Amino acid sequence: MKHILVTGGTGFIGSHTVLELLNQNYRVTAIDNLSNSKLEPLKRVEKISGKRAQFRKIDLLDIKALDDLFASTNFDSVIHFAGLKAVGESVEHPLRYYKNNISGTVNLCEVMSKAGVKNIVFSSSATVYGDPEISPIIEESPLQAVNPYGRTKLTIEYILQELYHADDAWNVSLLRYFNPVGAHESGEIGEDPNGIPNNLMPYITQVAIGKLQELSIFGGDYPTHDGTAIRDYIHVCDLADGHIKALENLDNNPGVAIYNLGTGKGSSVLDVVKAFEKANKLKIPYNITTRREGDAAICYANVTKANNNLNWKTNRNLENMCRDAWNWQQKNPDGYP
Fold first, then answer.
1. Which pLDDT value is given to residue 195?
2. What are the backbone angles phi and psi of residue 105, rounded to the nearest 5°?
């Protein structure tokens, strides 16, 4: 039974991926510094799956703790989620983002190399494409990250690729995913942002539950069918499955591989609002305000490469995403305790 280390394993995408790993009979150790997440998701993962992931509270900036972990445990591969992730915050505190995300990853890779663990799946982001001129976006599209968060993701991609070029024993999968939303169908685990959400779906669900008065839509004058920005929304459980497929593919296709993970379909902000209203039979009050600086008009993925090379495709549509997100919010009106 293969043993997988998941960094950032208590986060939104990390916890769903830990669940899928356990469901597919992997041994899992999750680490997290719990700076923007809680331990509760892993307790609920155990409740859903009937299996337990080991947990260690470790910060990737603590290289001694990492050394001790790898010295005491034999891992086969690493799935690397850990990192700060708010675009706006990264603009306000760029040094914090560069230190945490990049230095933490360098520490992780140094310890992995020392331990002879050279398989890694990295949680990258469509932010590496910046404001794309053309959608759907292919993996070969120009890379032009426009904020510190996106630049940390792109820098880490370069680090991992250069690691492989220096030592071809490394196997690296770089997953550029688009807009993860939804929750596990049980409603036990889901997205639990701190403060006012930065992302659309938890903003909608918090309006629906009454925590926020109305949804602010940033920009109603984009060159799209309804004037609101278009994104590629992917169900978090489909995304978790993509990580398992990428992990399996490391054995079959060694080297460096880059994949977009999305649905391949674009939905506008108002499309999502209407889908949420239809799926859950309620109304979402909203107000259209000015655009946010740096927001692209249209951004969605070409996922042909992941479909073909990973034998992966999404199985859940926008209605599923809206229904599952609302189910999570209703069962957990204040998020995790």
1. 86
2. -70, -40
What average pLDDT does range 113-120 have in this prediction?
98
CB atoms near residue 116 (< 10 Å): 10
The CA distance from 183 to 190, in Å, is 4
CA distance 204 to 188: 19
Q: Which residues are catalytic?
A: 149
Return the beta strands (E) in 159-249 as ranges.
Answer: 171-177, 179-181, 215-218, 230-231, 233-235
Percent helix, strand and coil across the chain, each to the nearest 5: 40, 20, 40
Question: Can you list the domains of the chain with their CATH numbers?
Answer: 3-182+234-263 (3.40.50.720)
pLDDT tens across 288-304, in order?
Answer: 999 987 788 999 999 99
Predicted model pTM: 0.97
Inform me whether the pLDDT recorded for 191 exceeds 80: yes
CB distance 179 to 233 below 8 Å: yes
Return left, alpha or beta for 218; rule: phi > 0 is left, psi -120 to 50 is alpha, else beta: beta
DSSP single-letter state for residue 126 = G
